[in-house]
Amino acid sequence: MARAVRFHQHGGPEVLRIETVDVPSPATSEVQIRVRALGLNRAEALLRRGTYIESATFPSGLGLEAAGVVEAVGDDVTGFVPGDVVSIVPPLSMVRWPAYAELATFPAELIVKHPPELGFETAAAVWMQYLTAYGALVDIAGLGPRDIVAITAASSSVGLAAIQIANRIGAVPVALTRTSIKRRALLDAGAAHVVASDEELVGARLLEIAGSKGVRVVFDAVGGPAFEPLTAVMSPGGILIEYGGLSPAPTPFPLSNVLGKSLTLRGYLVHEIVRDPARLAKAKAFIVDGLSDRTLKPIIARTFRFEDIVEAHRFLESNNQFGKIVVMI
Description:
Elements: E1 2-6, E2 17-21, E3 30-39, H1 42-49, E4 65-73, E5 85-88, E6 103-107, E7 111-112, H2 120-123, H3 127-140, E8 148-151, H4 157-169, E9 172-177, H5 183-188, E10 193-196, H6 202-210, E11 215-220, H7 227-232, E12 234-242, H8 255-261, E13 264-267, H9 271-274, H10 277-293, E14 300-305, H11 309-316, E15 324-328
Parallel strand pairs: 8-9, 8-11, 9-10, 11-12, 12-13, 14-15
Antiparallel strand pairs: 1-2, 3-4, 3-6, 3-15, 4-5, 5-7
Helix pairs in contact: 3-4, 3-10
Pfam family, one: ADH_N
GO molecular function: NADPH binding; oxidoreductase activity, acting on NAD(P)H
Protein name: Quinone oxidoreductase
């Protein structure tokens, strides 16, 4: 028996409950960990509200990231033994492999022995943000030195990961945020430039930054009307990677910009990387190396107790965080 967070109906944070549940032993090719820390993601709020790409089966668990200690391993699992300190690559299904629990089970190929200097709090904040940003910027866009990359929702954990990855490669990260309140924090986090979209003309400011070279890569979590000014300042052959859709407004297709510049507009999910062993192996190597040499350093917005999971989800939906929200068990 172990405590787990579950919900029995869609709704706001208040539908989350901590319940005591039976925990089966890990099946073949699975590893069970005793969770010490959880990383929170917007996808979990979407599942809770019934608007995620995956559907809940009630009562449903949730959660995509965890760090802890190996409790047990299934048949045919090699390379892990009870007592190993590990973290979790986000699974393809959080309904099938939910992380919000004292004991959680995952496919063995998603278990990572992270650099030993990482504590549980930091380790739980690694994989979703860096895999998402790496998959878009490195694996798909082929971001290179001196490339200019515009990053929307830059104060999110994924946005901050994208800034760090761009700097590690030698690219020029331009952070887009709604107001100038987070400008200093974004510059301190490594952004070369900051554009406040509610206070400045985004297209004019990006044009001032990029000049005739243009913005080669746009990494966007928002969508909506911003597509037109973003694509207007992109360089010929540039690529816009959409991984979110935070804007409630319709997203117009910027036909003239796309045709005139031969742009690529591409939807992206981190699942592309997770389900491909070869691509995942390259991503993990890049991220572990970055963690080891400290060019990649997760930024923790706030830490909550497991018992305060409802309040943690309220903070998640407030959009006031700068970096990753972590829950400790």
